[in-house]
Amino acid sequence: MCVRASFGTKCLTPKTGIILYKSLVRPCWEFAMAAWVMMPDCGIKKLEQVQARCLRHILETKAHSATDTIEVIANVTPVRLCIQQLCALEYTRIMCKPPEFHLHKMLQEAALKHSDATPLRFLIHP
């Protein structure tokens, strides 16, 4: 995704590119978070690479720039941390429901069975 498009003599600035990334790209990824949670580690690494590549193009940095540095400069949450944050919010939302709520019961059963199939496994298993 190259954000640096020329329209005559006007170009998008890195600041505008970051705003576009945060308002257009990242919300689409976060909407699909339920599918990502069950993704193997290699899939999450691929998402991290895509995010780093997008940010490098937006900030016009070298290809070998450190991903952590680019994320800090762009003020963008790393993919893994974003997944954990959204899962923690979802966990809290489910646990605030009454105990007879269907998802509440399913989450407790998954915790009792020590299931690796629950997307919230990192919250349940220390």
* Structure class: mainly alpha
Approximate strand percentage: under 5%
Radius of gyration: 18 Å
Number of helices: 7
Major sheet: order of its strands?
1-2
**Major beta-sheet overview:** 2 strands, antiparallel
Low-confidence stretches: 1-9
Count the domains: 1
Number of strands: 2
Provide the helix percentage.
Answer: 55-70%
- Shape estimate: elongated
What is the overall pLDDT average? Answer: 78
- Element pattern in H and E: EEHHHHHHH
Our measurement of the CA-to-CA distance between the termini, rounded to an integer number of angstroms, reads: 38 Å
Can you tag this structure with a few keywords?
single chain, 126 residues, mainly alpha, two-stranded antiparallel sheet, 2 strands, 65% helix, elongated
Secondary-structure map:
Elements: E1 6-7, E2 10-11, H1 14-31, H2 33-37, H3 41-59, H4 67-74, H5 79-95, H6 102-112, H7 121-124
Antiparallel strand pairs: 1-2
Helix pairs in contact: 1-3, 3-4
Characterize the structure shown.
By secondary structure, this protein is mainly alpha-helical. The chain has one domain (6-124). It is 65% helix and 3% strand. The chain contains seven helices and two strands; from the N terminus they run E-E-H-H-H-H-H-H-H. Strands 1-2 form a two-stranded antiparallel sheet. Helix 1 runs antiparallel to helix 3 and helix 3 (41-59) crosses helix 4 (67-74). Residues 1-9 have low confidence and may be disordered.
